[in-house]
Amino acid sequence: MANILVTGAAGFIGFHLCGRLLARGDSVTGLDNLNDYYDVQLKRDRLAQLEGRPGFTFARADLADRAQMEQTFRDQSFDIVVNLAAQAGVRYSLTNPHAYVDSNLVGFLNVLEGCRHQSVKHLVYASSSSVYGANTQMPFSVHHNVDHPVSLYAATKKANELMAHTYSHLYGLPTTGLRFFTVYGPWGRPDMALYLFTKAILADQPIDVFNQGKMQRDFTYIDDIVEGVVRVADRTPVPNADWSAAHPDPGTSRAPYKIYNIGNNQPVELQHFIATLERVLGKQARKNLLPMQPGDVPATYADVDDLIRDVGFRPATSIEQGIQRFVDWYRDYHHVR
User: Fold this and answer.
1) Which stretches does DSSP call E strand in the chain?
2) pLDDT tens-place string over residues 264-277
3) Does residue 315 have a cis bond before it (omega within 30 degrees)?
4) Which of 46, 190, 293, 320 is deepest in the core (most CB within 10 A)?
């Protein structure tokens, strides 16, 4: 099978993706810098599930370290690179902007350069639903204009798409960007709503509910995300012969470049999300209702028609199934009942 580099391998999506690739027989090099944006022990515990499995090699390196990245690409010949390493979080970008430039811009450039010089056959990289920013046309389509981000995090993800297109155009590097929509599930990030809510409710602490709970999110279960990534990684993009500069399609190009949404295609109101979690936990939440936070958007909703057409996959895990699986994992991992 393929020899694949997965950056951000100790992260939420990266960990699950490595497991899925190993299960089908691929050789996987998992790269991560194990930074302390959230609990490093959780990252180490994820890695412990991967290390020792046939075909897996772990490399501790930082995307922003040019010498380390050049060495990583010299050491092996990768067929596919999946770049999931990034500084995440909309709210964190308001107070720590330099972290986003280092990881999401400098780091991504180092990945692009490695892929270019080592003739990687396909670069797949994480973008985000945040790039839709001030766009209010629903559902969000990869064919919509996304030139008005409302957070630095979103701006860096849009920049990644532009940088990737440049390398596809100049060097013929096939690139595919994936706009993820609010990923959740077992081994999830502690800074995200489901983890924070579960921890607080079980500890009888209040939860912060922004925009009075009148937010909608296209919550997407981790297994659906990973299945989408794998199918897209196996499909190298080709130039769109019908692309026209007079009427440019933002989701494709004359270069070997493609963008996909991976979302559940069923937005859920935050109040319903919380009510489902309360039922699963068997406990009521105490809610601290707050206004909308800077950089947030009131709703996300993915148009996944291109994903369905090109790779035959539509995310299908219901919010009820997904929350139950997360809570089961959370209770087991944290030894709480």
Assistant:
1) 3-7, 27-32, 56-60, 80-83, 122-128, 175-180, 183-184, 207-210, 216-217, 220-221, 257-262, 268-269, 287-290
2) 988 899 999 999 99
3) no
4) 46
The type of residue at 98 is: H
Return d(Cα 86, Cα 99) in angstroms, integer: 9
Closest C-alpha among 160, 301, 295 to residue 220: 301
Q: Residues 6 or more apart from 8 whose CB is under 8 A from it? A: 14, 31, 32, 83, 84, 85, 86, 126
pLDDT digits (tens, 9 = 90+) for 159-218: 999 999 999 999 999 999 999 999 999 999 999 999 999 999 999 999 999 888 888 999
Q: Which residues contact 110 (CB under 8 A, 6 or more apart)?
A: 63, 64, 65, 66, 69, 70
User: Which residues, other chains included, contact 335 with Cβ-Cβ below 8 Å and sequence gap of 6+?
Assistant: none
What per-residue string of b and e applies to 130-159 under the rule 16 or more CB within 10 Å gives b? bbbbebeeebbbbebebeebbbbbbbbbbb
Beta carbons within 10 angstroms of residue 331's beta carbon: 14
The pairing of beta strand 175-180 with beta strand 122-128: parallel
153 is annotated as an active-site residue: yes
For 104-108, the CB contacts below 8 A with 24+ separation are: 104/153, 104/156, 104/157, 104/159, 104/160, 105/156, 105/159, 105/160, 105/163, 106/63, 106/64, 107/62, 107/63, 107/64, 107/69, 108/63, 108/83, 108/159, 108/160, 108/163
Catalytic pick from 100, 125, 132, 153?
Answer: 153
Displacement of CA 189 from its chain's centroid (Å): 11
Residue whose token pair is 């077992």: 186
Kindly report whether the global pTM for this prediction surpasses the value 0.85. yes
